[in-house]
Amino acid sequence: MLNNEIHIIYGSQPLRMIKEILAAINLASELDKDMKIALKPNLVLARPARDGATTSPLIVEGIIQYFWEHNLKNITIMEGSWVGDKTSRAFKLCGYEDISKKYGIPLIDLQKDGFQNVKAGDLNLKICNKVLETDYLINIPVLKAHCQTLFTC
To answer: Smallest Cα–Cα separation from 23: which of 86, 67, 82, 60?
Structure first.
């Protein structure tokens, strides 16, 4: 896949659709079976995906299935919920505990992780340690309105 490509798929079956689009871009060809892959859904709060604020667990499950079909099994799911909510509660309520049990994939609560200061251009960013230990990070955002930035994606 080229960095300047955008791939779009339409439908109402997220598990099947995510596997199709990952196959279309041939993501597995860019990865090695020993790589540490982290999936970072948007679980800003403990609300089911149908409410529009959190990433559908079906999308994450589709990504996991695609990776497993290509012998890429060194996967974690990591997230840190918004201040005022608990990531562990979001993992449970949003269906990620079920995915973790089904596939034996660890859930990493970034609210409980330390961080390192990382310079990026003129910015000094605090990046969680577990993220820095990852070889390949897939951010799985939810396009939505946001009180601080007008929208997120």
So the answer is: 67
Q: Following DSSP, what letter does each residue of the chain receive, concatenated?
A: --TT------SS-HHHHHHHHHHHHTGGGG--TTS-EEEEE--SSS--GGGSSS--HHHHHHHHHHHHHTT---EEEEE-PPTTS-HHHHHHHTTHHHHHHHHTPPEEEGGG--EEEEEETTEEEEEEHHHHT-SEEEEE---EEETTTEEE-
User: What percent of the chain is modeled with pLDDT above 70?
Assistant: 99
Please check the confidence at residue 150 and state whether its pLDDT lies above 90. Answer: no
* pLDDT tens for each residue of 37-91: 999 999 988 999 988 889 999 999 999 999 999 999 999 999 999 877 899 999 9
Residue 60, φ and ψ in degrees, nearest 5: -65, -40
**pTM of the predicted structure, to 2 decimals:** 0.92
Cα-flanking dihedrals φ and ψ of residue 142, to 5°?
Answer: -120, 125
Is the distance from CB of 107 to CB of 98 less than 8 angstroms?
Answer: no
